[in-house]
């Protein structure tokens, strides 16, 4: 990387080099039987250069020809993309506990044995199909720029995903666990999946209407996706956010506090710097229902004449190879502050309502405006404090700036899920349509 930096600096004003090595092992079980084992190693480099106020970008899987790599970045300058921001000089960052060396010696046989153990526990106790996914990996990242920044981090992870499928559908009751080292799936996780599935195995057809709706951690991303979009510096700059003028104002129920915390190294993937070298920080988005902040990368902070907030990440809502992506504003470490009631207490408090256990069409609706309209996959129907069955062909719809003003209760425990780490949240007066 040092030689690449020397070559690139000779022909440009500013240089940023990003490298990533990823090692991963994964195991999948279908219908309680081993289906696949996969091991991967991949590495790559991306290069951003700034010259005459324009930005160029290129990526490669190797550094065999550094001169050609730089030429590719120079050629992309013809696109005329403006880059008026400077690259940060960053050092003296907090040391985070992100890597457990035991992951390096974790064998696939151990993961398979753990999956078999889970199947042996669940299979005799349910008629549903048991699907499992588990795996581990190590990511090694290094970031250099021409201003003198040279940062690196390693992080390890081990994950499990346990699901029991409803017959004749893709719907399931599932739960994910993610750790920095190998850990047996807790009994509480298996009990939750088993009891929730068995208690809802009967298909029911309740009437629709406005009612209480409980979003499980696995489906909260439907709501957070809209907030993630509305508070991005990109959306503010492009005038797409319906809350651009509402900093300091109440937008949600006072029970809701939503924050980004990359420094929380209890969870895998904690970061002290973003993919542009800006320091990360604890960052409140909504505090007791009040909108506190928008978030920015280098580019959009410059466009809006404000400071970058450490949210410039090579991420995409649709996935993709990290090396091929350019930094954009992203909330990669989003949390909802837990409440004071267990999930079972919240369910027992329901006279009538729906639990959103899975979502279809999370992209449906006007995301910039906060609208959503999702199919339930599955939805669980609750009556008199008990789950009585699962609902097919049903939908939940609304707008987050209305729905999230009516919080009834928030679960007391956080779980890793899509787009963040969340508790279950119960809302009132939500529209449910049933067949």
From TrEMBL:
It comes from the Bacteria. Residues 15-75 form the Metalloprotease TldD/E N-terminal domain. Keywords: Hydrolase, Protease. GO terms for biological process: proteolysis. Pfam families: PmbA_TldD_1st (PF01523), PmbA_TldD_3rd (PF19289). Residues 209-433 form the Metalloprotease TldD/E C-terminal domain. One of its GO terms (cellular component) is cytosol. Coiled coil: none annotated. GO terms for molecular function: metallopeptidase activity. PANTHER family: METALLOPROTEASE PMBA (PTHR43421:SF1). Belongs to the peptidase U62 family. This is Zn-dependent protease.
């Amino acid at each position: 990387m040092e030689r690449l930096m020397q070559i690139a600096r000779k022909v440009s004003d500013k240089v940023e080099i990003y490298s990533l090595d990823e090692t991963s092992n994964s195991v999948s079980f279908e219908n309680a039987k081993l289906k696949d084992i996969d091991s991967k190693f991949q590495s790559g480099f991306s290069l951003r250069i700034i010259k005459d106020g324009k930005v160029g970008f290129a990526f490669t899987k190797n550094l065999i020809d550094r001169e050609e790599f730089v030429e590719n970045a120079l050629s992309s300058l013809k696109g005329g993309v403006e880059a008026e921001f400077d690259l940060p000089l960053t050092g003296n960052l907090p040391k985070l506990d992100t890597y457990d060396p035991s992951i390096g010696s974790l064998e696939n046989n151990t993961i398979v044995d753990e999956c078999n153990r889970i199947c042996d526990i669940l299979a005799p106790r349910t008629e549903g199909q048991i699907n499992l996914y588990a795996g581990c990996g190590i990511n090694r990242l290094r970031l250099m720029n021409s201003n003198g920044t040279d940062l690196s981090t390693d992080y390890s992870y081990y994950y499990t995903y346990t699901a029991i499928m409803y017959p004749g559908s893709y719907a399931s009751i599932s739960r994910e666990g993610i750790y920095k080292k190998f850990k047996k799936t807790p009994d509480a996780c298996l009990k939750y999946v088993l009891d929730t599935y068995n208690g809802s195995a009967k298909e029911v057809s309740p009437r629709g209407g406005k009612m209480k709706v409980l979003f499980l951690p696995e489906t909260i991303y439907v709501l957070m996706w809209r907030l993630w979009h509305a508070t991005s510096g990109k959306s503010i700059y492009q005038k797409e956010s319906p809350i651009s003028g509402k900093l300091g104002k109440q937008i949600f129920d006072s029970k809701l506090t939503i924050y980004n915390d990359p420094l929380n190294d209890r969870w895998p993937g904690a970061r002290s710097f973003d993919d542009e070298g800006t320091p990360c920080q604890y960052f409140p988005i909504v505090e007791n229902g009040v909108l506190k902040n928008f978030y920015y990368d280098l580019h959009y902070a410059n466009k809006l004449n404000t400071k970058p907030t450490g949210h410039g990440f090579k991420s995409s809502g649709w996935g993709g190879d990290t090396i091929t992506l350019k930094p954009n504003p992203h909330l990669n470490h989003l949390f909802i502050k837990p409440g004071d009631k267990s999930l079972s207490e919240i369910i027992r408090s329901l006279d009538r309502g729906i639990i959103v256990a899975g979502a279809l069409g999370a992209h449906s609706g006007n995301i910039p405006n906060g609208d959503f309209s999702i199919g339930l996959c599955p939805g669980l129907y609750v009556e008199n404090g008990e789950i009585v069955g699962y609902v097919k062909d049903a939908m939940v719809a609304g707008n987050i700036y209305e729905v999230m003003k009516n919080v009834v209760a928030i679960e007391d425990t956080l779980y890793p899920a899509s787009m963040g780490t969340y508790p279950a949240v119960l809302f009132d007066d939500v529209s449910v349509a049933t067949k």
